[in-house]
Amino acid sequence: MIDYTTIFEITGAFARVHNQLDQFANEDVTIASGGDNFRSLDNLALRFVELLNDSPDERRILGVVERLRSIAVTVDGSWDNVRAALDEFITVNIADELGAGGNVNDVLAALARAMFVDAESVQQNAVAASAVTADASNSGTGKAYVSLLAANPDDTTHLSQLVRNEAIAVTCELDSPNDGVTAGNERWRARSTDSLNAVTTTIPVTAGPVEDARNFVIDGSFTVFNAGAFDHFDATGAAIFSQSTTDFLFDVAALRINGSGVASLSQTLSDRDEPPPGGVLMALGIHRKITSITAGTVTLRLIADGVPLAGNIVYNSSTPTGVWSHDAVFVYVPRGAFPDELKVEIVTDSAFSGDVLLDGLSVGVAESIGHGISLAIFQGVKPFVRRPIPDRFTLSTTSDEAGVFTVFLRDVYGIELPASGTPTVDDGFAV
């Protein structure tokens, strides 16, 4: 039986030291006479240089501020020594308790797995992400989406506890007209107010039989249509699938669903030279134009081994009509889905009656940009550009920082342990 109490009593002592040193080194300093708050002693010292340098007493005050600044720098740096002791506790004591080995991250990963199996947890943070906002000056018409989903050892999901309070800008840095990148394969740089710096790429729309490394759907623009059937899709049920060559967005055609009854149009994504991986978060996206849906539904989903995965796109009589729009959903694909069968399916139910256009069907890995954030940027009709004004998306994430252990391990090691609103591990060990 793993002694979680001792593990967290000692880890909590390190957390207390870390938080106290951090608070002291970054504490606001108040000038009582002026009522101004200065975020750092560096700024305070500079202000005193401007105001106080005319008399011996004033210069002595300036010297005191300089010594305080030196103390703060020393305190901030002293965490390195404490961190070394914590690293040793993890790789020696916790590793021995778990029967694990490896470096600090290996041992903490083993601790997380053991806690999950034993139904142990620390206090969770309440985290959230805003919708992604496209800059008003964007040239490209594609859409971007964000997810905070992370996987558990049993292939269930949770909201990542690596999320923090930050604002994020995602800016196009490689495009087609300026850099020769194929349209729909633009590269983006994600930066935040809290050290995040990562690269992601657009998920393109595919046309014809060519496989794409970013979009696992072959012929997502429904271009290849012969003898009343799509070459790269399998159709069953009612004969309601056809090709529209008069109203479409990409290449030369779109998918038209017109009629009534149960029908399915699917593609086996794993039937490729480079199949999609399992154990990842996928983004499923589609452009749609609803002429009418008088009854029933149209559903887009991923299926692994014949079982629909959690997360789908559904259209019904309440879906807005008359204009092209884009929708997307994030779907976690279990580890066992590869090398077994993974499909994307467009299906109508028995009550369906309507006229629907779909184009640009895309399924790609939602790329992690760090801090528990996954991003998916889908190609639009007009390509993204980086000049003269880079296309840009913005978003923000929030955390209530309620879990002391959760915040400590996130900030120091960039890892998360199983977390719950009713934890078994008392945060009191760390306060």
Name its key features.
9-stranded mixed sheet; single chain; 431 residues; 2 domains; alpha+beta; Jelly Rolls
Structure explained in plain terms:
- The chain has helices at residues 4-25, 41-51, 56-98, 104-117, 176-179, 404-413; strands at 29-31, 36-38, 122-123, 127-129, 133-134, 143-147, 149-151, 157-159, 166-174, 187-192, 197-203, 225-226, 229-230, 234-237, 241-244, 254-260, 263-268, 280-295, 298-304, 307-315, 325-333, 342-348, 353-365, 367-370, 373-378, 392-399, 419-420.
- By secondary structure, it is α+β, with helices and mostly antiparallel strands.
- It folds into 2 domains: 4-125 and 407-430, no CATH class; 128-399, Sandwich (Jelly Rolls), CATH 2.60.120.260.
- It is built from 6 helices and 27 strands.
- The longest helix is centred in the first third of the chain and has 43 residues, at 56-98.
- The relative contact order is 0.19.
- Strands 4, 5, 6, 9, 10, 11, 24, 25 and 26 form a 9-stranded mixed sheet that branches. A 5-stranded antiparallel sheet has the order 14-17-22-19-20, with no helix packed on it. Strands 15-16-23-18-21 form a 5-stranded antiparallel sheet, with no helix packed on it.
